[in-house]
Amino acid sequence: MATQVETNLSSISTLTCSKCGLEHDYDVQQRVSTCCAMPLLAQYDFSSPFSKNDLQNREATMWRYHEVLPVLDEKYKVSMGEGFTPILELKNLAHAYGFENLILKDEGQNPTGSFKARGLSMAISKALELGSEGCIIPTAGNAGVAMAAYCAKANLPAIVVMPRHTPKAFKEECYWYGAEIHLIDGLIHDCAAQVRNLNHEGHLLDVSTLKEPYRLEGKKTMGYEIAEQLQWHLPDVILYPAGGGTGLIGIWKAFQEMIALGWLKKNVKLPRMVAVQAQNCRPLVDTYLGIHANSQNYNGSPTIANGLAVPRPLGEPLMLQVLELSGGTAISITEEEMLEGVREMARKEGLFIAPEGAAVWMAARKLLTQGWLQPQEQVLILNTGSGQKYMENIEGRYLS
Ligand SMILES: *Cc1c(COP(=O)(O)O)cnc(C)c1O
Ligand SMILES: [Zn+2]
What we know:
Keywords: Lyase, Pyridoxal phosphate. Its cofactor is pyridoxal 5'-phosphate. The protein is of the alpha/beta class and 400 residues long. It folds into three domains: 13-76; 87-113 and 213-389, Rossmann fold, CATH 3.40.50.1100; 115-206, 3-Layer(aba) Sandwich (Rossmann fold), CATH 3.40.50. Helix content is 34%, strand content 16%. It has helices spanning 91-97, 116-129, 142-154, 168-176, 188-198, 214-219, 221-229, 246-260, 283-288, 316-326, 335-349, 355-369, 391-394, and strands at residues 12-17, 23-24, 40-44, 87-89, 101-106, 135-138, 158-163, 180-184, 205-206, 237-241, 272-278, 329-333, 378-383. Strands 4-5-13-10-11-12 form a six-stranded mixed sheet, sandwiched between helices. It has a four-stranded parallel sheet with strand order 8-7-6-9. The chain has a three-stranded antiparallel sheet with strand order 2-1-3. Strand 10, helix 8 (246-260) and strand 11 form a beta-alpha-beta unit. Helix 2 packs parallel to helix 3 and helix 3 packs parallel to helix 4 (168-176). The termini are far apart. Zinc ion binds at residues 17, 19-20, 22, 33, 35-36.
């Protein structure tokens, strides 16, 4: 049955395998690539007109970039105002530590309190557009909450599988959105195994990180926003708390797309991208340092930064590519350092950030001390979530 499609909403042209480039149709729901079982990347027709001027007067959400987003028909858009979060100057911390230009993009101000809202808004919109019966997700917390919320709005059944040790606020919020919740002893890859059991017939869309192509498209909008909000002058360095890595991969993808659109010069100096992980679970750091060849058999421990407890990220090769192409690095932060970061950001800047964001701040401090960052460089910290749901991870620690 032919449906009326607003043809200029999206200029998506195909999906390609991130490993071998094989094309996949975008008019059916895809998972990983059929050739290599690796993430699929959405491609767009950049010859169709889309200019910076078109952005004027558009809504202050990630949907202002709809030409380079995959949703074809406005009526499937499931949105609660995600994206276009503020970039804040951290003058007090900059002054205390000798940064001249320290800024923070506050993703804690998204719906459901984290940047997961971007990816899940996009993935659930596409699930709706492509006729999914429901969605299922293994999660460390924030992604499950966001999926449950967007599924509620889209009127789709939702199943969330998360570690038993996840803070209560994440479980409660999923429950109130009406999701079915399963608790697992283990980390997110153990939850993924349970998702495969629960969905062995494949009726539900598994929206695991990078196992469908569209969460990445939501996350990449951070890259477009960073460029637009900084008047098309990119920062020297961006620090990102890497779990599955969609933000790191997505921001880099956005930079490439903006070069293709002519919004950034071909010879533009792109930011050095830094992946920050928890000392308790640092698969990418160990691969980056050559401690192991890859993280396929890595075993991590839980961390108060739940979103960083991803021992075997499917997107590792793509993350390593971003670190290499950008001249970036990878670094890990201890639990105690994260607490110090939460405390400092709260006391000096009035921001109650997630431990993941605190890890990123502490990484900036370390890299400045080590001379990897120069004082005059513009350094952008991504705070990926609000601290409010992590209370039992951090409560009482101030007494010690
Ligand atoms: C999920 C999450 C991360 C890691 O994001 P990836 O896309 O998996 O790299 C970082 N911070 C917070 C708060 C998260 O919820
Ligand atoms: Zn392939």
